[in-house]
Design goal:
By secondary structure, the protein is mainly alpha-helical. It contains 17 helices and no strands. The longest helix has 43 residues.
Length: 378
């Protein structure tokens, strides 16, 4: 299949049912054994389907074999987007150090090929990983690098960067700067591009600013949209409602959030991350109110959900090892034919940081932008 044929078929399938699109890309990967542009883009587009469907782990499983062997392919700007996508996926499963590793690799490739339009994307996504870990000073330092590179980036990226800058400044109590950043986000169509993200930061900002009427309006909007959200967006919205409620001593709001999380789990009991977060919140609430019985019950349920999360991570790591060992052996065999600088990716130690919430954006140099989920830049 030529690249033109592949690209045309992708366009024809744009609105096809998801199973049909998945089958197409799986068939291309099975049939296209040479390391061509078609094979590379099939990896990326196939993984992107799962990412957009909220199946982040499947997206990573598809794309990581390409990431390991990317130097065997002809350079295309979409290689940077592949690293970014894997980094965003790692963010969503709360492996923040691993997320930064992939994003930095993408940034390094962008610099090597003078893909200046990519810099703002990568810095934005790095900032979001620090934001998730509440390292607000580092997040501010990195998001300022993204802001510096905005003039040469896609204008849509401006909304993401200013939205994330607004939240970072909120947490640092730099409220005037937060208001200014949010106003700029809205000027770049933030409500249209990333509506849930704007609702979340607006709630935080109105609360911290003492705008009671605005805060109540924002809370009502978050509550209204909560049932429609994916797990990651749902958790992020619950978090801001819970945190503000706890800080204000608003037990009614806190209990509403806990009830909403319990309702989510009744609909989808397999969402262990939602269960883990719900019991963490319940424990904090019970502790603040001196309710020992509720604290103990929450701890017990929390341990159950945590065990499910760990079991899932272990399953993934075992499967990863099964894929990586053959690939690593192949890389070792090829090193005699590679220059030392070409082995940078394979020689790196990649720390894993087990532990959600996003403001990521991705861009494939003219190809689909990764959809905004909760703030990996969610």
């Amino acid at each position: 299949m030529t690249y033109e044929e592949f690209d045309k078929r992708c366009d024809e399938l744009e609105n096809a049912p998801l199973p049909e699109r998945k089958t197409f890309f799986a068939d291309v990967l099975a049939g296209e054994t040479e390391k061509t542009d078609v094979r590379m883009m099939a990896f990326f587009r196939y993984a992107l389907l799962f990412y957009r469907d909220g199946d982040f782990l499947a997206a990573r499983e598809i794309l990581e074999p390409f990431i390991i062997d990317y130097k065997s392919y002809r350079y295309r700007p979409e290689i940077i987007a592949c690293f970014n996508l894997v980094g965003v996926v790692a963010y969503y499963v709360q492996e923040y150090a691993l997320s930064r590793f992939y994003i930095r690799e993408g940034l390094k490739i962008a610099r090597e090929h003078s893909e200046v339009s990519r810099y703002a994307y990568e810095y934005n996504n790095l900032a979001v990983t620090y934001l998730a870990q509440q390292d607000y000073e580092k997040a501010l330092e990195v998001i300022r690098e993204a802001e510096k590179n905005m003039p040469v980036s896609d204008e849509v990226m401006h909304a993401y960067i200013y939205r994330n800058l607004a939240e970072i400044c909120c947490h640092l109590d730099r409220l005037d700067e937060a208001k200014d950043a949010l106003a700029k986000c809205l000027a770049y169509r933030g409500r249209e591009i990333l509506p849930e993200e704007v609702r979340i930061v607006s709630t935080l900002l109105t609360y911290k600013s003492g705008d009671t009427a605005g805060y109540k309006r924002c809370c009502a909007e978050l509550r209204e949209h909560l049932p429609q959200l994916h797990a990651e967006e749902f958790l992020a919205s619950c978090k801001v409602l819970f945190d503000c409620g706890m800080d204000a001593g608003d037990n009614a709001q806190v209990e509403w959030v806990l009830d909403a999380m319990d309702a989510y789990l009744r609909r989808d009991p397999k969402e262990a991350q939602v269960g883990l977060r719900a019991e963490t919140f319940r424990y904090e609430y019970a502790k603040a109110n001196g309710n020992t019985a509720l604290m103990l019950a929450a701890l017990e349920k929390k341990e159950t959900y945590y065990a499910l999360v760990l079991a899932r991570k272990e399953e993934i790591h075992v499967r990863d090892a099964g894929r990586y060992l053959p690939a690593a052996a192949k890389c070792v065999g090829e090193r005699g034919r590679r220059q030392p600088h070409q082995d940078a990716l394979f020689g790196q130690h990649v720390p894993r940081h087990p532990h959600a919430h996003q403001r990521h954006s991705g861009h494939a140099g003219g190809h689909p932008r990764l959809p905004q989920r909760r703030g990996a830049g969610r």
